[in-house]
Write a structure and sequence with these properties.
- Strand 1, helix 1 and strand 2 form a beta-alpha-beta unit.
- The protein has one domain: Rossmann fold, CATH 3.40.50.
- Strands 3-2-1-4-5-6-7 form a seven-stranded parallel sheet, sandwiched between helices.
- It is 47% helix and 13% strand.
- The chain has nine helices and seven strands.
- By secondary structure, it is an alpha/beta fold.
- Helix 1 packs across helix 9.
- The model has no long low-confidence stretch (mean pLDDT 97).
- The longest helix is centred in the middle third of the chain and has 31 residues.
- The radius of gyration is 18 Å and the shape is globular.
- It binds NADP nicotinamide-adenine-dinucleotide phosphate.
- NADP nicotinamide-adenine-dinucleotide phosphate (NAP) binds next to helix 1 and helix 7.
Amino acid sequence: MVSWAITGATRGIGLGFVENLSVDPKNQVFALIRSLGTAGPLKELASQRKNIHMILTDISDPTKLDEAAAEVSKVTTGSLDVLILNAGSAGPDTAVLPPSGFHGKKEALDLEIGESIKNNLLSNIYTINSFLHLIRNGQEKKVIFISSQSGNLEFTRQTGFSTLLGYSVSKAGMNMAAAKFAVELAPEGIKTLSLSPGWVNTDAAKAVTGDPEVRKYVLNMFHKVDPNVEGPAPIDEAVSNMLRVIRNLTEADSGKFLTHHGDEEQWF
Ligand SMILES: NC(=O)c1ccc[n+]([C@@H]2O[C@H](COP(=O)([O-])OP(=O)(O)OC[C@H]3O[C@@H](n4cnc5c(N)ncnc54)[C@H](OP(=O)(O)O)[C@@H]3O)[C@@H](O)[C@H]2O)c1
């Protein structure tokens, strides 16, 4: 049995992980979600596959996360093999502004940065800390953060991608936090990885790049790092690629920020 916990498992990439992993009855899959409102497809799948356990929690509340970890522990008798920190969001409408666009808009800037830091960085640190005692007892001992190419300096420099300020800063910040956990926990054999999923056809991607004009604009930028990229990849393809990288993760790569191809260059 390999046990996996995935945050943000109602939709998109998170649900994709649950679908892929639960095919194998030797996997125990814990789908951590904040609400049943968007969990229809997950509930349907969980009714057919007994190795899926749905757990309601709030990743911004360490007490609720401790309770969620206790629920997982009851099933696994005190361990967890792989924790996937997938929940994330692009932030307020001001995400379309470049940094200088916030001049004279202090409140908007505070919200743009603050919301993303809360949702994409602090919540992930709370989650790791609440589940760490289970990971310590696991066989795999892996903590995976689903990051974004937007949090990479070279990607930003090469594409000229100047918007999504709070989101990009929070992803870059969490990459660093994951590296801090990696070096702290290396003596215990615990490995972390920040992993970019690529450009994936989810609700989030549709919200950010769904408009045809915006799509043309971002494709122009993306072509500067990959002339062949045509659009977002299917969820199952992105998930298969990421699982290959996760399964290959060794201590040598712990704390790195890799693409879904397992390198530091192929963002699509
Ligand atoms: N799609 C892409 O091209 C792309 C590219 C780079 C990185 N990513 C990253 O991949 C991850 C998954 O994104 P996605 O494209 O699958 O997005 P999505 O389709 O919008 O799904 C996001 C999931 O995260 C949950 N979530 C969002 N904010 C949350 C919060 N504050 N607390 C708890 N749950 C929260 C959502 O729950 P609800 O259903 O309750 O809203 C949903 O389950 C994110 O971290 C994103 O930044 C995606």
